[in-house]
Specification:
- The complex is a heterotrimer of chains A (about 400), B (about 675) and C (about 325).
- The longest helix of chain A is centred in the C-terminal third of the chain and has 41 residues, at about 360-400.
- Chain A has 18 helices and no strands.
- Chain A is globular, with a radius of gyration of 24 Å.
- Chain A has a domain at about 55-195 and about 230-355: ABC transporter involved in vitamin B12 uptake, BtuC (Orthogonal Bundle).
- Chain A has helices spanning about 5-35, 40-55, 55-80, 90-110, 115-145, 145-165, 175-180, 195-205, 210-215, 215-225, 235-250, 255-265, 265-270, 275-305, 310-315, 315-325, 330-355, 360-400.
- Chain B has 4 domains: about 55-165 and about 295-315, Rossmann fold; about 170-290 and about 330-355, Response regulator (Rossmann fold, 3-Layer(aba) Sandwich); about 385-485 and about 625-645, Response regulator (Rossmann fold, 3-Layer(aba) Sandwich), CATH 3.40.50; about 495-620 and about 655-675, Response regulator (Rossmann fold), CATH 3.40.50.
- In chain B, the strands form 4 sheets. Chain B has a 6-stranded parallel beta sheet, with helices on both faces. A 6-stranded mixed beta sheet of chain B has the order 7-6-8-9-10-12, sandwiched between helices.
- Chain B is globular.
- By secondary structure, chain C is mainly α.
- Chain C has a domain at about 25-130 and about 150-245.
- Helix content of chain C is about 70%, strand content about 0%.
- In chain C, helix 1 packs across helix 10 (about 235-245) and helix 6 (about 155-175) packs antiparallel against helix 11 (about 250-270).
- The chains are: A mainly alpha (about 400), B alpha/beta (about 675), C mainly alpha (about 325).
- Chains A and B meet through helix 1, helix 2, helix 3, helix 6 and helix 10 of A and helix 1, strand 14, helix 13 and helix 16 of B.
């Protein structure tokens, strides 16, 4: 490999990996310091974290389960960002989607045949979330109301609507009967449960456990995740499918192109004859739809009933933003970044359990990781600038006849 | 541009999985430790074994001198008594190194002793722990001991280390009572070394004891910042006396300076650690003496029988490790008072740690009006159990989560870590995370898995069949899974309307404006029950009183709760109540405005002791014990456990700020609820 | 002391609460306004507030001096601001993410410090409410209606309101204000006119964070006099929203903060007065009204052109 080629490879690809990795290491190092001050062995703690997220069948399954809402919310965030609007309202959109799905499922669920019912409900969740996202989109386009403001406010409104419904019209009748009055809904009929991986494996004839087959180590673990009973549900595949669809939508369709054009340069898009306002509402609506979809999948795949709103939304509206930006706001990038973030969250919890570290310490360390990693952009750019100038030099040498690889 | 993040994510996942792969074999879910069943109180000294002919060799590394009249001397005195019992120097050898304040030096001393073939090497200082755990594995045939500590290194795989501690707060408490009984000026002085270890325990106990006897006594505490600075300790004693103190105490070897001053100025001195009366017989009115005989005799016995370590010892008043010695000229009444308190501690009626932490209401004597409520008693013996809790908020929320945590912690403090082993995860408001935690805990072999929130139920019913030997519990609910065919799930439910009713009676009695206010979180669950009962209680007592109810729509919005309290007060309310962790904000406002607060769930008096006049405390101990005992009987679940006033699951705490007639009315209400003559009916809201 | 619940009492109650509750929003909102005017979006306000709340509380807890609490809160705000500035300005990080990172860091660290250094919720004697005693028998508080509304607040509340005209003056009448606006509107042009954009942005981010720290302290040592984990409960995010509400103008932020907190006071009264509104609906009122108010057809200023855009000197 020639020097130039290596340089280009180094600065374009290797650097992309090395710098953020160093940043994560640096953040973990600072975190280790805090852990050490707290009298916790950092090495043990981090080991517990990594193993908790990826080192066991259930840990890995939990990580994947957690990545589903992150992925779906993240896709919505990406569409909004690409369309030039900022959606901090995924929290509320997720809640309204989940509420609507629960309402329909509990009311009409018995009559719906399984698969069709699930598909309809997924659509309903997306519809409701989309509606909740369309409101701030419309307010921005028509009345100039800033979407950061309106989405933050609408999160609070969605939470209170949730409480109102769950305390009143939608409360589980059993709660009223028992007098405990916990604000959650009745369980959705079981025919509306999304299949778990283990159910699918069973249907395909895989019934034996890894131990029985003598598969050990990581292969056994993977096999376990796919076949043995875990909480991993088909929503994971659905989310990945959605990521691919969003990719196709944004890069291979005219509407997608228009959305991106508006996001890249509003003025230019307007001159090009694109209806900027309509596309802003559209991207906000789609963004909300994906958050609503996340709510629907959480209900159908995981919870099977609606709990207190914040217990279900669980901050995904914010962690989803981080996951989306880590994934480069690229639908396919969001897949691994959601899994990574899911892992960090699951591993962090595990660390708490394994070491009895206050959970807040993990929050602080996660914050550090985010801060450190976003800081690396700068160094990368700096180093790449240097590459460009170096290349310019070699180019100049070539032009003057000194270069040997002109023909290569 | 943004591709970098994508690649980063991919790479990290690869890296993480590799790490995970590599470590996979090494880590296993923690297995339940083999718990000893019979020896719950290992400090009881057993008889020395028949001399086996071999000389038993003990080496001690001491931070100060063996004549320090304090920490080091107490140990050496004990070892000498053991030596005598065992048959003199021929049977037992004692070697020691003094003044090992330098840890590096101490480490080499420890290693040298172990190398020299000593049977038991004692590192008599917390600071030696790190070195000890490095050295111990190299000498598997030697027993090591260190203190003050509770860590025997079991989880590090070390098996030949004993740990010991002195529960100095117990004696400190009794001596605090004595001091305030002897005191005439209303001021006590404490000369502490460094605010840590047994010195801190002792001083905390002392201050709490003094206040227990006389709430308005002033306890001035000064720390010299060192153990050996006698001059500074003397100066501190002088200062205390100038500030009006007429009884002094203090700890560590530095105190000899202070005792000198006390003698000179004619004030009384109370000693700890070692018997300090020899220094100034007419000044030292009492001492708490550490008697290490029991623990070390037991270590020697264990070593001889082949058990090299792994045991933790604690000196307490109960097991005779802490001995109180009073001068024979000491005031008899004061000593009697102190002895009475000591007996309460020994009997378990008074938990000093609770008083220090402000959990138990400090009251010297109260005539208990019988309400028919079950008084909580610790069963003499329970089966060792491993409990784990998944909590929606934090263990410091002063309400829902903390009440459970405190109860389990209290049981552990009483029975010891060997009997009650527990873990918890807090802030699990996210159901998905909670589910992962629950499954994980069930997988790690815990006996009782408590999911402390109604939102966790579905997860439990999914899990329970997979772990038939584990008991699960959740609440607030009455559903233990009969429909699902599950038999190992307990349901629990605090009948908050009961305590709420009693609080309502108090509110009605206290209000002058005829308006009382409620600052609730969300009108659901036990918060709703509380309000229902509260309203009923108010109206039963004062039908024309108004109860204004506001909900913040949130469990954690402290400032909104504060503002709600402000609003209530502006609207004329002169008594307030409320629930969930948000209420600390409201209590702060109540304190500012001088309005009494009626608490529920946790004991909130730490925020404003004068404002929180009554509390309906959720006492989970009977519930937990009910589960443990059901398990002993082979019943793993299938029951609804209610927390009621009758079964002691709800405990009313009345502050001494409450007028006597109000307390009487409240107790009458308690009685009525318990015997069924009062029926609580929720009014439509 | 039975008090008749007259209309006047209720109005006084609502307005008094509204003014007091506006305090933290004002500090945090005005600080954030400066940040955004200079072109930096700081989403980490809530985390900084929590750190300020803890350190302010802890200082008072240890020393009993409320002013030391203010100093501690401002100091820790400056440190947090410096961190944000380094990450967002020097390292040119994506501001939306770095703010969330800062928020998580502040939330986690303040709770951790609380757990290890205090462990339990306790009260302190912070700032109390001033009554403006003029002579022996007369205080401004005694003036009917006006007195109980305006002359019954702590010094930190007055400070917050005083900060509004000061901010307006700094922003509109001083060279530094001009530089801030230039840095946020057109950094390249500002640079060519000799304004050091990086320095200006550093200063404003640190100033904004110091004010956010103060906002936290106003909760923990003036309004509530306690500290509890996550006690801001998302107030910092509301403060960011109020900056948008106020169109990046001090008086606009004031209007937003007053509207939001007064409606909040109103809904609490609505509950107390037993109006037939479900509590949940009452609670969502301030959020709803804030959106509606902003949807009213008034002329609004556009956001600073260079908001969230990093600036590199000498490129292109």
């Amino acid at each position: 490999m020639s020097k130039t080629k290596f340089n280009r490879f180094f600065y374009d690809h290797l650097l992309n990996l090395l710098l953020p990795l160093l940043a994560v290491l640096a953040a973990l190092l600072v975190g280790a310091l805090i852990l050490w001050v707290q009298g916790v062995d950092p090495w043990e703690a981090y080991k517990a974290m990594f193993l908790g997220a990826f080192g066991s069948k259930n840990g890995l399954a939990d990580t994947l389960v957690k990545s589903v809402p992150l992925m779906l919310v993240g896709l919505g965030i990406a569409i909004a960002f690409r369309g030039g609007v900022i959606n901090i309202g995924a929290e509320g959109q997720l809640i309204t989607g989940a509420l609507f799905v629960t309402f329909l499922g509990v009311t009409f669920g018995e009559k719906a045949p399984g698969a069709v019912g699930i598909l309809l409900l997924l659509f309903a969740g997306a519809l409701m979330g989309g509606l909740w996202g369309a409101i701030p989109g419309w307010l921005k386009a028509q009345l100039g109301v800033n979407e950061i403001l309106s989405t933050i406010m609408m999160n609070a409104i969605a939470i209170q609507i949730g409480y109102y419904l769950l305390r009143g019209p939608m409360i589980d009748p059993a709660e009223l009967a028992a007098g405990t009055n916990i604000p959650h809904s009745a369980r959705l009929p079981k025919n509306l449960d999304m299949a778990r991986f283990t159910d699918m494996a069973k249907a395909l004839g895989f019934t034996k456990r890894a131990k029985e087959l003598g598969i050990e180590g990581y292969a056994g673990q993977l096999y376990g995740v796919l076949v043995e009973p875990t909480r991993l549900h088909i929503g994971f595949l659905f989310a990945i499918l959605m990521a691919i669809l969003v990719y196709i939508f944004l890069w291979r369709t005219t509407i997608g192109y228009k959305i991106r054009a508006v996001g890249l340069n509003r003025q230019a898009a307007r001159y090009a004859g694109i209806n900027v306002k309509r596309n802003m509402v559209l991207s906000m609506t789609l963004s909300g739809a994906f958050a609503g979809l996340a709510g629907a999948v959480e209900i159908l795949g995981l919870h099977h009933r609606m709990f207190e709103p914040t217990s279900v939304s669980a901050g995904y509206g914010f962690t989803g933003i981080v996951a989306a930006l880590f994934g480069g706001l690229h639908p396919l990038g969001i897949i691994p970044s959601s899994i990574l973030f899911g892992g960090l969250l699951v591993g962090g919890d595990k660390m708490q359990r394994a070491m009895q570290i206050p959970q807040v310490l993990i929050t602080a360390i996660l914050g550090l990781i985010v801060l450190f990693v976003v800081s690396t952009d700068f160094f990368k750019r700096k180093l790449q600038t240097r590459r460009i100038s170096e290349e310019a030099e070699t180019f100049f040498e070539k032009e003057t006849g000194a270069g040997e690889e002109a023909s290569a | 541009m943004k591709k970098r993040y994508l690649l980063l994510s991919l790479l990290l996942i690869v890296a993480l999985t590799l790490v995970a792969c590599g470590g996979n074999a090494a880590t296993k879910a923690p297995k339940p430790e083999p718990t000893k069943s019979s020896e719950a109180h290992p400090t009881k000294a057993s008889e020395p074994p028949v001399a086996s002919g071999e000389k038993f060799r003990v080496a001690v590394v001491l931070p100060s001198t063996i004549t320090d009249m304090a920490w080091s001397q107490a140990l050496i005195d004990s070892l000498k008594r053991i030596q005598e019992k065992m048959g003199g120097e021929d049977k037992m050898e004692i070697a020691y190194t003094e003044n090992m304040w330098n840890v590096t030096d101490a480490a080499s001393a420890i290693r040298d002793y172990a190398d020299g073939g000593y049977n038991l090497v004692i590192a008599h200082g917390t600071q030696y722990g790190a070195s000890l755990f490095e050295i111990a594995p190299d000498f598997p045939d030697t027993s090591f001991a260190w203190g003050t500590a509770t860590d025997t290194g079991k989880d590090k795989g070390v098996e030949n280390v004993f740990a010991y501690e002195a529960r100095a707060e117990q004696g400190g408490f009794v001596l605090g009572v004595l001091a305030s009984a002897l005191d005439k000026t209303g001021v006590l002085g404490v000369v502490g070394p460094v605010e840590a270890g047994d010195a801190k325990l002792y001083i905390d106990g002392f201050a709490a004891g003094a206040k227990y006897d006389k709430p308005d006594v002033k306890v001035n505490i000064s720390y010299t910042g060192s153990f050996g600075d006698t001059a500074l300790a003397a100066e501190a004693a002088n200062t205390h006396i100038s500030a009006g103190a007429d009884v002094l105490t203090g700890s560590a070897q530095q105190v000899v300076g202070a005792i000198g001053v006390a003698k000179e100025k004619g004030v009384l001195w109370i000693g700890t650690q070692s018997d300090q009366s020899s220094l100034a017989p007419d000044t030292v009115v009492a001492s708490q003496i550490y008697v290490w005989d029991g623990p070390f005799q037991d270590m020697i016995n264990k070593h001889m029988s082949g058990v090299m370590g792994g045991e933790t010892y604690a000196l307490t008043l109960e097991n005779g490790g802490l001995v109180l010695k009073y001068a024979d000229w000491a005031d008899k009444d004061a000593v009697a008072k102190a002895e009475q308190v000591k007996q309460m501690i020994v009997d378990g009626d008074l938990n000093v740690m609770d008083v220090i932490e402000g959990k138990a209401a400090p009251a010297m004597s109260g005539d208990e009006v019988s309400t028919g409520a079950t008084r909580f008693e610790y069963p003499a013996e329970i089966k060792p159990v491993r409990i784990v809790m998944v909590l929606p908020s934090t263990i410091t929320d002063l309400s829902w989560s903390q009440s459970l945590y405190d109860s389990v912690k209290d049981l552990q403090d009483h029975y010891g870590k060997d009997v009650i082993d527990f873990a918890y995860t807090e802030n699990m408001w996210n159901v998905t995370d909670a589910a992962a935690a629950l499954r994980d805990y069930a997988d790690s072999g815990y006996d009782i898995v408590i999911a402390h929130g109604a939102q966790y139920g579905d997860t439990l019913f999914e899990l329970a069949p997979d772990y038939p030997d584990t008991s699960f519990a959740w609440g607030t609910t009455t559903n233990f899974g009969a429909d699902e065919g599950v038999t190992n799930v307990f349901a629990y439910e605090p009948r908050a309307d009961q305590g709420g009713y009693v609080l309502g009676v108090i509110a009605a009695k206290l209000t002058k404006s005829g308006v009382v206010g409620v600052v609730g979180p969300i009108d659901a669950g036990d918060a709703k029950l509380h309000v229902d009962g509260f309203v009923a209680g108010v109206h039963a007592t004062k039908p024309d009183a108004k109860v204004n109810i506001s909900f913040t729509g949130n469990f954690g919005d402290t400032s909104l709760a504060a503002e709600a309290a402000n609003t209530q007060i502006s609207a004329g309310a002169d008594v307030l109540t409320g629930s969930a962790q948000q209420v600390v904000g409201a209590i702060g406002v109540a304190k500012d405005k001088g309005v009494p607060w009626l608490g529920i769930q946790g004991d909130q008096s730490s925020v404003a002791p004068d404002t929180v006049v009554a509390t309906d405390l959720y006492d989970w101990r009977p519930t937990i014990l009910a589960m443990i005992q059901a398990r002993s009987g082979g019943v793993l679940g299938g029951k609804v456990l209610q927390l009621t006033l009758a079964n002691g699951g709800q405990r009313m705490i009345y502050s001494d700020k409450l007028p006597a007639d109000v307390v009487e009315a409240a107790k009458a209400a308690e009685k009525g609820i318990i015997d069924g003559s009062i029926e609580i009916k929720a009014e439509p809201r | 002391m039975t008090q008749e619940l007259t209309f006047a009492v209720i109005i006084i109650g609502i307005l008094h609460s509204g003014i007091r509750l506006a305090t933290p929003y004002l500090y945090a909102g005005l600080g954030e306004m400066f940040d955004q005017r200079a072109g930096v979006l700081n989403l980490g306000v809530d985390g900084i507030m929590l750190m300020g709340a803890f350190f302010g509380f802890y200082a008072v807890y240890q020393t009993g001096n409320a002013w030391l609490g203010v100093a501690a809160a401002v100091l820790v705000g400056i440190v947090m601001g410096l961190l944000m500035a380094v990450v967002s300005i020097s390292f040119q990080a994506e501001q939306g993410i770095s703010g969330i990172g800062l928020y998580m860091f502040g939330l986690g660290l303040s709770s951790l410090l609380f757990k290890t250094m205090l462990g339990t919720v306790e009260g302190v004697q912070g700032f109390s409410e001033l009554k403006f005693q003029i002579t022996q028998n007369f205080s401004l508080y005694d003036i009917p209606i006006i007195g109980p509304i305006f002359f019954n607040h702590s010094v930190l509340t007055y400070g917050a309101f005083l900060l509004v005209p000061i901010s307006a003056y700094v922003l509109n009448k001083t060279t530094w204000g001009l530089k801030i606006k230039a840095a946020g509107q057109n950094p390249e042009a500002a640079d060519s006119l000799g304004v050091n954009v990086t320095t200006v942005r550093y200063m404003t981010v640190i100033l904004g964070a110091a004010l956010a720290g103060l906002a936290g302290a106003s909760l923990s040592i003036s309004l509530l006099n306690i500290f509890q984990e996550n006690m801001t409960n998302g107030m910092g995010f509301i403060a960011v929203a109020l900056v948008y509400f106020g169109s990046w103008r001090p008086y606009g932020v004031l209007a937003g903060a007053l509207l939001f907190s007064t409606v909040n006071a109103l809904q609490l009264w609505a509950q107390v007065l037993n109006l037939p509104i479900p509590s949940d609906v009452a609670v969502m009122l301030p959020y709803l009204l804030t959106i509606i108010a902003l949807a009213m057809p008034f002329r609004r200023a556009a956001q600073p052109a260079a908001l969230t855009r990093p600036f590199t000197r000498g490129d292109n």
